[in-house]
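tool_call: predict_structure(chain=1)
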Amino acid sequence: MKKILSLFFAIVLIVSISLPTASANTKELEVHFIDVGQGDATLVKAPGGKTMLVDGGPRSAGKDVVAYLKAKGVKSLDYVVATHPDADHIGGLINVLNSIPVKNFIDSGKAHTTDTYYEMLTLVDKKNIKYHVPTVGKTYQLDPKMNLEVLYANESATDNNDASIVLKMIYNKVSFLLMGDASVEIEDALMATTNVTATVLKAGHHGSNTSSSAKFISNVKPKVGILSYGKNNSYGHPHVAIPSRLKNVGAKVYETAKHCNIIVKTDGIKHTVTTDCSKPSATPVKTTKPAPKVTPVKTTPVKTTKPATRTNFKNCTDLRTVYPAGVGKGHPAYQSKMDRDKDGWACE
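tool_result:
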């Protein structure tokens, strides 16, 4: 009998050790850097289920942002943040506000005279959404296990970019720093007053050289660097130095123009990064064999609808007015400088 009881308690002990404890943290924080072309849009899904959207990209991306949110199971947003009033950050929020219930709207407070900004604020008022203009040090309770703090805000800034709300999210040992379009001057101010170290850095101003100084990146020490910009944009984003600076500190660099939607998931200890190029416009180009690009299938519609009356173009935006799908190598309008990924097809 004693042997039987001893065996029973031994089995109970083994089972209790192998089972996870009730306090074990199995929920993840998800941060989605949405590919909106030339702009910014970041979805935060907290471990407890609350959601936040930081910026919404340009107006042309609004429907895609709404579709992405719904595809990820977002039925309402606890917070929407407009980091500053530039159209490439708030334009897509018009569609979001018209399509998805929003509980709280956080705005930089920087007044702007554009129709887009006016329409956005009108919708916030019409829908009785709680409106906040944050100050430095303000925290928001997105999740009890997270700390979400405003590191920078300035509604009186003379420049829109200098009004950018800068957010830092901390989930246990993993942190995210979202820089909006904050300039080098703001980076210097942050380094002088606060701890800017972060696991993931969403670099300021789409990788422009007006942001992301070498000193700042060295202080942040990111393991992951995110650059959100549109392919072949007229601004030349990102500046060639910015990815190099990120790589120099050991960061893995992800770019929406190359990797599409970028999703970072973390349990607070470890983190993973996945990319999603499932958008219809990107799939046939980026996930299939490159051969179809040079077949007559792609060029025939262009030649029949837009005769090759022009061969010289200033940039890809100009070229697409005549050849919406771009041109292949050998075409009179093809220029190697417009074929940045060197795949034999310019301005796709």
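agent: The CA atoms of residues 183 and 211 lie 5 Å apart. Proceeding to next step.
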